[in-house]
């Protein structure tokens, strides 16, 4: 759900956030009821839920604003069940910028926690306001410290990545190290949750009197989030190693050129004769006008193909979907990101059709499958 565009950054709230808001309200209502009677205690508890996610929002917005100041485009900020996420279009080009963007979020939370402690010391507040101030101070301290844990995908992991990157000159090394540390942090979170689930407030181990199953459930969710994020970071670096090896010419499918009025069955027959894996629609002068969608061909039953023209299953070409056959590496990846599509026409320098590049083939080259 779109909620606004502060500082030019689109902000969205996932439906899962409302589930967390209800959960936080129920959990905090007991404390609120100590200072105010029901049903007003539920309103106070819900106010805390809003303030808690306000802290998360400020955290993510700090990342976004810092990234924009440093020249990196920001797609969006999204609040969800496990906190929030800032989507930045590309990675920081230097370890210094990576450090600044990563540290901006926790820094703001720690500053807010410090301001909360200062306000608590110098202000005399009503019981309800004091409770919310204490809870909000703790929440900012928790968000700030938790995000500084040294493992991806947390901000602390990005700080580790920046430090290793600076020391080694290789961003890949930083990401791999921070990813493996992140896996360790995930395991530590799960162990901590298991301990809290069986810890008794009287200091003895065993069931009852402790934080219970909720601590274990929440730690399991957090641990899975960190583990998956760390694993994805490690995998992404391995995939990135393959980028320089990508070659559109090597991945291209041979193409058969047909006019739009040719029946699909006949076009497929010609492609089989040519040992081609793609169909290009051309006009009567041989100028490419469109690409026949592989998915559309597959979805068309064989008995219908004689009665459907190839042009009916094609998508018109534009400059962004026409690439030079010699494009490789990062330039190829950038071109695919700039104009997402399932197929691209590859042309020689003199304008002749070389073939068709299917994104599915690029994906297989990335994954090594």
From TrEMBL:
Its main location: membrane. The active site is at residue 60. The keyword Metal-binding applies. The chain crosses the membrane at residues 7-28, 40-58, 99-123, 129-154, 175-199, 211-230. Gene3D superfamilies: CBS-domain. It is found in: Cell membrane. Zn(2+) binds at residues 59, 63, 155. Residues 254-302, 319-367 form the CBS domain. It is a multi-pass membrane protein. Belongs to the peptidase M50B family. This is Zinc metalloprotease. The lineage of its organism: Bacteria, Bacillati, Actinomycetota, Actinomycetes, Streptosporangiales.
């Amino acid at each position: 759900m779109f909620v606004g565009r502060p500082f030019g950054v689109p902000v969205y709230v996932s439906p899962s956030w409302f589930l967390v808001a209800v959960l936080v309200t129920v959990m905090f209502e007991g404390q609120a009821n100590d200072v105010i009677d029901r049903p007003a205690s539920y309103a106070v508890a819900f106010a805390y839920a809003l303030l808690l996610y306000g802290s998360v929002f400020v955290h993510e917005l700090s990342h976004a604003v810092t990234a924009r100041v440093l020249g990196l485009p920001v797609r969006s900020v999204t609040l969800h069940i496990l906190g929030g996420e800032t989507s930045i279009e590309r990675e920081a080009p230097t370890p210094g910028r990576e450090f600044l963007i990563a540290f901006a979020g926790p820094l703001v939370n720690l500053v807010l926690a410090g301001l909360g402690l200062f306000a608590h010391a110098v202000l005399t507040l009503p019981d309800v306001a004091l409770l919310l101030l204490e809870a909000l101070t703790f929440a900012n301290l928790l968000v700030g410290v938790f995000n500084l844990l040294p493992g991806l995908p947390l901000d602390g992991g990005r700080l580790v990545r920046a430090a290793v990157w600076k020391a080694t000159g290789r961003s890949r090394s930083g990401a791999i190290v921070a990813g493996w540390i992140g896996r360790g942090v995930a395991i530590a979170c799960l162990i901590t949750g298991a301990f809290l689930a069986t810890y008794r407030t009287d200091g003895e181990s065993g069931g009852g009197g402790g934080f219970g199953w909720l601590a274990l459930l929440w730690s399991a969710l957090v641990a899975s989030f960190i583990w998956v994020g760390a694993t994805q970071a490690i995998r992404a670096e391995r995939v990135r190693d393959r980028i320089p090896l990508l070659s559109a010419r090597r991945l291209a499918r041979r193409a058969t050129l047909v006019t739009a009025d040719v029946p699909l069955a006949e076009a497929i027959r010609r492609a089989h004769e040519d040992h081609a894996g793609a169909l290009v629609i051309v006009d009567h002068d041989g100028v490419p006008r469109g690409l026949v969608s592989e998915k559309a061909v597959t979805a068309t039953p064989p008995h219908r193909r004689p009665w459907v023209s190839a042009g009916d299953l094609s998508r018109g070409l534009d400059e962004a979907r026409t690439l030079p056959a010699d494009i490789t590496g990062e330039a190829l990846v950038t071109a695919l990101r700039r104009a997402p599509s399932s197929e691209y026409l590859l042309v020689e320098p003199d304008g002749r059709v070389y073939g068709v590049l299917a994104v599915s083939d690029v994906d297989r080259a990335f994954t090594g499958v």
